[in-house]
Amino acid sequence: MSLLLHCGAFSTTYDDLLQVELPEMTSTYEPIPHHEIVDTVLSTATDSSLTIKRSQYGLNKSGTRMFGVIDFEQTSHPDYRWSIGFRNSHDKSMSAGICAGSRVIVCDNMAFSGEFSFTKRHIPRNGFLRYIQQTFIGLLEQLENLQKNLERLKMEGLSEDEARLIVFGAAENNIIASSEVVPIWSEFQEPRHPEFQEPTQFNLLMAFTENAKRYNSNTKAENVYRRLGHLFAI
Question: Which residue from 62, 109, 111, 211 lies 20 to 30 Å from 1 (Cα-Cα)?
């Protein structure tokens, strides 16, 4: 998971979220307490038999913006770990949102992504908390499908020519910069992690994502991860 706080926000605790004062509701604006979003995610996860491994929260100095990520255990599939990210505001700077997947980015610079995500404006009766509960089961089904697709990629071998076409095709379609072709190819040929040695679709995807760790821009990483999902049909 990835909670990135480098634009004025800082790491905090759940108890700190409880202390944040809620602004007044108006005819066009209904704020959501930060902790209620966390409570809804945690309780719904528990009801869905998910085991929570780790949680991280962040607030800006005024407490008007909240960011968080919760990481879940995957005892049946130890190669993967699903995460839920969320955000909220009391200053009308951003919609309430939740995202989920194997790659989650929540940043105080407004980068916000996962394999699945949705946001809702803070309008009266927006139903955001109910929406979390109602979609959680469907979300788990989608994550299960994603997991099956990743397992499929592990079984699909690649020749050098096929892998080379995918890497160059990614550059031609502006998923990556042309300057990234050689680093990605080198990572695929000689991966730094021994478990990615076999020439498979999955390990080529890992070469792409290993390269993406070098990006300075979270927005760029977010866009690349999303487009890689389409490239590898996951």
Answer: 62
- Work out the mean pLDDT of the chain and round it to a whole number: 88
Which phi and psi angles does 25 have, rounded to 5°? -80, 145
Task: In whole angstroms, give the CA distance from residue 6 to residue 138.
Answer: 33
Q: Do the Cβ atoms of 67 and 58 come closer than 8 Å? A: yes
**CA 132 to centroid of chain Cα atoms:** 16
Give the whole-angstrom CA distance, residue 33 versus residue 171.
44
Task: Report domain extents, the chain.
Answer: 2-147, 156-231
pLDDT tens-digit profile of 105-155?
788 888 787 777 888 999 998 889 988 887 777 767 777 787 889 899 999
| Cα-Cα-Cα-Cα dihedral sign, residues 42, 48, 49, 53 | negative
- In one letter, which amino acid is 48? S
Distance set, CA 212 to CA 103, 114, 127 (Å): 12, 15, 36
- Higher pLDDT: 50 or 174? It is 174
Which residues are within 8 A (CB) of 114 and not within 5 positions of it... i.e. 6 or more apart?
Answer: 83, 85, 99, 100, 101, 103, 104, 105
Distance, C-alpha 38 to centroid of its chain: 16
**pTM for this structure?**
0.72
What single letter denotes the amino acid at residue 226? R
Name 2's Cβ contacts closer than 8 Å, sequence gap at least 6: 69, 103, 104, 105, 106, 107
